[in-house]
Amino acid sequence: MHIEGPPCGRVRRPLTRREMLASCANGFGGLAMLSLLAGESQASDSGAEGRKVIHGLSGLHHPARAKAVIFLYMDGGPSQMDTFDPKTRLDRDNGKPLPFPVPATQFNSNGTILKSPWEFKQYGQSGLPVSSLFPEVATCADDLCVIRSMTSNFSEHTNANYFLHTGSGQQGRPSMGAWTTYGLGSESQDLPGFVVLSGGLIPPGGADCFGSGFLPPDYQGSVFRQGAKPIPNLERREPTEAEQQRQLALVRQLDRSLMGRVGATPAVESAIANHELAFRMQRTVPELTDISKESEATKRLYGLDSDYAPTRNYGTQCLLARRLVERGVRFIELTCPPTGGDRWDQHGNLKVGHENNARAVDKPIAGLLKDLKSRGLLDSTLVLWGGEFGRTPMAQGTDGRDHNPFGFTMWMAGGGVKAGSVYGATDEFGYYAVEGKMEMYDLHATMLHLLGVDHKRLTVRFGGRDMRLTDVHGNVIHELVG
Asked: Which residue has the higher pLDDT, 45 or 466?
């Protein structure tokens, strides 16, 4: 057997163990490719069950209730006592000081008790109370599972956003979308497994809220912007497809050459995978984002006929989220549209600010829930609504509310949750979670459980220990499961 030696004048150093593992069988990417080919040969061709899963676990840890997640991220922190957690004590004690000491808030400009400016009514057979901020979502009350006892470890936006998205208050950890696609893969070969639909606002913490951290880069969220070109530089620049194919063939040859010299490192493999995916997306993204063939009734359902531009913005996102689910995308996150003021972060001007934000998202969210349900997709799609924390029951100044991480509201729908239900409770002022206190780790553990994944077993070795989305915490809240 002839073994090619090093170039003249150079001494080849011995391979390290890492390089040897990376080079064997073209690296772990080669093993992933074998798994992919095996999965394709075993997949059936009929229905959603037959979609081919790209990468991911070899099998679920237990039967899944959901196949996809849509996260309706309410950037800034909606007020729980003004949305889904009514507090009559605030009406009775409006203008009085809180009868107990409170911890330091973000700005420590604490006034007296502020009652909700909105009226609550009970809706549906469940009798779920919803404020007049959400008249459209209220019509879906029997599909909601409202969590009134969420807590966070952080009261500042950036750290709280990282905590909500990644399970850590520090920058650089993989987001829950990245963990989900890493564990489960994608049912779409032509679209990313994790898509972020941007409404135009960049949340505090920036793109690291959607990053892949120490996971391979191809698991990070792919941001789709508003407008005719949701992804920059995606369009083909070559005059013909044949010319582009020749260029791609050259790139593949160069990639193989590089991998032969340096080994199949995760960075190289991710770059190759993203390049190939971008080529396929040149065909799929224009078709995905072309909603002209949707019926006029569907467009009205999502509020695309609204005279309020933020509603049309968010309605388009919600409609695209449904279309992404139909095409097998695993995790979709929607961010808030600009409304001319602040996001859900009303330190002042609470009434106008919350009303503008609610007007932007109310009809589109209700439209999404109803459309998913009518198409038989809600049962297999977990919809999650909420922000990084809640608000205080006392006023900041006279007409605002400060940050409150000690007890706030999020809700889930579809995906196997207990519909038309309420879990947990805050105290009579809406300040602290006092029943069924739920941490962010518990939310992540329950989400993964509904997807068929044991959060304690979805781990990656990094920094000398097994890392996971829930770190060393988290419990599945089985009371949320229907």
From this structure: 466
- Residue 202, in any domain of the structure: yes
175 vs 278 pLDDT, higher one: 175
Residue 291 has pLDDT above 80, yes or no: yes
**pLDDT at residue 107, rounded to an integer:** 80
CATH of the domain at 341: 3.40.720
Q: Which pLDDT tens digit goes with each residue over 325-334?
A: 999 999 999 9
Residue 406 included in any domain: yes
Q: Number of folded domains in the chain?
A: 1
Separation of alpha carbons 377 and 369, rounded Å = 9
Is the distance from CB of 224 to CB of 320 less than 8 angstroms? yes
User: Is residue 49, in this structure, part of any structural domain at all?
Assistant: no
pTM of the shown model? 0.85
466 located within any domain: yes
Q: Domain range spanning residue 325?
A: 66-233+294-480
To the nearest 10 degrees (0 to 180), the angle between helices 309-326 and 266-289 is 120
Instruction: Specify which residues 71 forms β-bridges with.
Output: 333, 384
Listed as own residue / partner, the contacts of 240-245 with beta carbons closer than 8 Å and 24 or more positions apart are 244/279
CA contacts within 13 A on the Cβ side of 4: 2
